[in-house]
Amino acid sequence: MTQLSNRHAPHPVDSIFIDRWSPRAYTGEAIDDASLLSLFEAARWAPSANNSQPWRFIYAKNGSAHWGDLFALLNENNQRWVNRAAVLIALVSKKTHVRPGETVPSPLKNHSLDAGAAWASLAFQAYQLGWRTRAIGGFNRDAAPEVLGVPEGYQVEILIAVGKQADKSVLPEDFHEREQPTPRKPVERFIAEGKFSFAE
Ligand SMILES: Cc1cc2nc3c(=O)[nH]c(=O)nc-3n(C[C@H](O)[C@H](O)[C@H](O)COP(=O)(O)O)c2cc1C
């Protein structure tokens, strides 16, 4: 396990949960199709309500015909580091599902939750393969459906940058201090037995 100075796990977990973090500094190296498909394969096996699998991924490799469309959706601050990523991925969720034995679609209460599980699987698989990821909520949510051709009944959840990690010196200087793994609240702050008993 990499010893990340501000990340400790008093309760034993697989090292990947501690070692994965989300850098912004990327080398600009291109991603091959086999690696990219492995990321989506990992997402594929995420659990979901009724096994509805409501996740959809729309990707554009850096320099490809659609890269500019996805890149232009990003907030200006995110554009300043995503420019060196290998691929940008939009995670979209489907808000309805035809349940087993039914013919009419009904609302899926957990479409975002399930899409989130798929994102986490993708991120951990990427880490295993030597790629790094960073989720991005800072993008133009109003414009995204039209730009990406997403029809009614779907929600654009996040964009995801994937790349090979570079030294922070490739980033604009104001990002340098933040280019490090973040800590977490201790487990005791977010678990309770039986009833909600949290200060915040
Ligand atoms: C839904 C979501 C939205 C996020 N939006 C952004 C963003 O717009 N820009 C950014 O640089 N990081 C963004 N992040 C990255 C988080 O800030 C980061 O995952 C968090 O600080 C934990 O750090 P770690 O992933 O390195 O462990 C986002 C993460 C998530 C899950």
**Element pattern in H and E:** HHEHHEEEHEHE
Main pleated sheet:
4 strands, antiparallel
Architecture in CATH? 3-Layer(aba) Sandwich
Percentage of β-strand residues: 15-25%
Mean pLDDT: 96
Number of domains: 1
Ranges where pLDDT stays below 50 over 5 or more residues in a row are none
| Alpha-carbon Rg, integer | 18 Å
Q: What's the count of strands? A: 6
Q: Can you give the helix content as a percent range?
A: 25-40%
Can you walk through the features of this model?
There is one protein chain. This protein is α+β, with helices and mostly antiparallel strands and 200 residues long. The protein has a single domain, classed as 3-Layer(aba) Sandwich (NADH Oxidase), CATH 3.40.109.10. 27% of the residues lie in helices and 17% in strands. The protein contains six helices and six strands; from the N terminus they run H-H-E-H-H-E-E-E-H-E-H-E. The strands form two sheets. A four-stranded antiparallel β-sheet has the order 1-2-6-5. Strand 3 and strand 4 form a beta hairpin. The longest helix has 18 residues. It binds flavin mononucleotide (FMN).
Give a brief description.
With 200 residues, this protein is an alpha+beta fold.
